[in-house]
Amino acid sequence: MDSKTLNVLEYPKILERLAGFCDFSASMALARSLEPTDSFDLAISRIAETTEARKLLSIQDVTIGASHDIRPAADLAARSGVLDPHALLDIKSTLIACRELKKTFDKKEGEFPRLALIVEGLPDSHGIVDAITRVLSERGEVLDSASVKLADIRRNLRIAHDRLMSRLQKYVTDSKTVPMLQDSIITQRDGRYVIPLRAEFKGKIKAIVHDSSASGATLFIEPLPIVEANNTIRELQLAERDEERRILAEVSSIVGAHAVEIKYGVENLAVLDLAFAKAKYAEELHASEPFLHNAESGKQRAEGGKQKAEQQSSIKLIQARHPLLDPETVVPIDVDPREGTRAIVITGPNTGGKTVSLKTVGLLVVMAQSGLHISAQSGSELPFFKSVYADIGDEQSIEQSLSTFSGHITNIIRILKVMDHRSLVIFDELGSGTDPQEGAAIARAILTHLLETGAVTLVATHYPELKTFAHSTEGVVNASLEFDIKTLRPTYKLTIGLPGRSNALAIAQKLGLPQPIIESARAEINPLDLRADKLLDDIRKERNRTSREREKLEKARAKLEAQTRELEGRLEKIEDERRDTIAKARAEGELEVAVLKRNIDSLKSQLKKASQPLTAIKAIEAKMEKMEEKVDAPVERRRTTDDGPSSIVNRQWSLGERVTVSTLNAEGVVTALGESDAEVQIGTIRVRAKMSDLVKRGGESNVQKAEGRRLETDGGRQKAAPSSTVRGPSSTSPGMEVDLRGLMSEDALDKMERYLEQAYLAGLPFVRIIHGKGTGRLRQAVREALKGHAYVKAFEEGASTEGGEGVTVARLNAG
Dmax over Cα atoms in the chain, in whole Å? Predict the structure, then answer.
């Protein structure tokens, strides 16, 4: 790409902002050197990387960690150099970051294929991290444990140091020497331990003088008796230094052996960090992924590595914003000319936004071909250009001179020599700076040449001749920036399809120019031009009205879609509730069948013991089979007649009444009434029971009462023989659940044992044992006790609606 054009478009400022999102120096350098590519495939790949990175960062906080540019250190190690501790720690932290990134992408290769491919190029640690950790602390100090020799040297050094300090301490505390000392301290000079002697006592202590104070009043001496001790410490310090260097050289050699892989990995790490930086910058800009289409192969979009082709080759920018302007105040523009447009001629007032509009389009094209998302609404499309050229002059005063015109023409000549049909060419104030008639002619001729070449062109101008040219030439379209006559300020809104109006007379009148002068000036203007201006004004007003209506319709459509989504959500919720209700009804039906089976088995057992025939049970079994069929069938609302006991039953119960479910021997509260059944809350469980199975507290069921009344009216023909009455389980039900929470294991197991015995005798088919979640010890003890229990057939964890792992459901053996 043309470097002068990139500077004119302020692209380096974009790169500087991008570099601010990078986490280490290598990726910052990549960001600052990022240039738009002239390869369509590479541009698509870059955009796909940014899209993947943006998607990843939206669902997971991924960074490159505490990475550094360790390539210079790797180079030094490869040349047998010895790395200092801080360089080795940088290598360690970088390799750890690479290792963590590889773990992150292990399971995301299919979701983020392009980023995963970059991560594959990150270096492995090859034991380098462990080697550095073994010899260096987090502060960069060589550890005593780095080698046996180093540990011995440091131990001897501590011993020698303690001995030396002990001998020097005698000098600073001895009453004979204290008066001769400037201070009672021990200090160092040139790596040797000394004491401060007053100059007038020189020679009183046999010693070696190492230094003196600035005033000469103090001499720093090393007493002769401790010279050998100081020598010993110095020798040990040198030995320590040499051993540390040997250890660092050993670790450095491991780094050097993998220097090539490390340098290549750092380059890939920089590419990955740049992708993350592009994603973060896109989020800051509220940018969107651009559609790129190649004029030679149709339109393609980088989306998940897949390319989608369509036939279209024009610029389409929706709500485009200049990325360097404040997003809160910048006015977005729409650049969406009709298909086949090759040139756009923009007219409008000075400082009205023409130059910003040109730079916005040029900059977004350059950003897209650099792999950046663009500051425009989703759905924006851009052709792929092999090159972009711009001649934009920011000098817009009336004092433009010939030298300014010459500068522009020189730049235009350079551009015309190198551009082709695959180029985007941007000219600001084309032909300005010279005689208007000649300038307009030159501008028209240049624009004609660009159209013949096939380049896409954007031109900003004040010349009315170019408005006419754009209106009458195929492939060229007018555009204008609006101006508010009331406030005398530009609106910065770009309108495609309409040329700009001068507004000079209206502005002059608004500012107070005398009306006779205004009328005189209007008389000098061609009436056709005045009518054209009036027509343009009417068209603009109509378009603005249409635009407002379209906005209203869009808001109404958005509101309708929101209401539709809300209704769909409600319907889905209702459907979920319906399914839950059906599932609950089926579960309650299964419970009723299980209870009936248990009672029938119990009755059979009792009849056998009493040597009674089983014919009395067969009718009940037939009813039970019908009930099983109904459980499997769709849930339907059952209807009953007002004849027989059921009508009596329906009229006997009321909501909130406490009853006993005879088939369960369990007491509860009526919570809902159907035509032939009722819902009863038993503890935390709700069950569905027939009206005939309900018994008032302390009394018989309604059906039993009704049957009793019927028998009494039979004139004594039927009598209930107590000896032949078949009775169900006679033990009182302990309820469907037992709560063991808060008890010690032994107490809980005793309580559970008593409860299971009562439940078994009461003929309950299953029970719920509530032990809570907690540490799991009580749950484990309960389930161990249930294994092989005499009363328990099987047990399982409670459903999520029953308390999940905090509850165990035990199914009991038949009595």
Answer: 145
